[in-house]
Automatic annotation (TrEMBL):
The keyword Metal-binding applies. Keywords: Metal-binding, Zinc, Zinc-finger. This is CCHC-type domain-containing protein. PROSITE patterns: ZF_CCHC. Residues 37-53 form the CCHC-type domain. Gene3D superfamilies: Zinc finger, CCHC-type. It comes from Aegilops tauschii subsp. strangulata (Goatgrass). GO terms for molecular function: nucleic acid binding; zinc ion binding. SMART domains: ZnF_C2HC (SM00343).
Length: 68
């Protein structure tokens, strides 16, 4: 068993006061003009949910990806 709700709160706390896309503190997501930045590996160009380091992406799942 694992507590998904608790981990979700921890995950969101990492974005508090930050842009959700690029993690900048200078603006919010709606004002973002910067490239996407991954919170897991800190590389640009993809989100954590699409990151190769995301355990959810480790087993060749064919989840539909959509940029937004
Ligand atoms: Zn941004
Ligand atoms: Zn990544």
């Amino acid at each position: 068993d694992f507590n998904a709700v608790g981990s979700h709160e921890v995950f969101l706390s990492r974005f508090r006061g930050r842009c959700f896309r690029c993690l900048s503190k200078r603006h919010r997501r709606k004002d973002c003009r910067d490239p996407l930045r991954c919170v897991l590996c800190k590389l640009q160009g993809h989100l954590a949910r699409e990151c190769p380091q995301n355990p959810r992406n480790g087993r060749g799942g064919s989840a539909s990806s959509r940029l937004g």
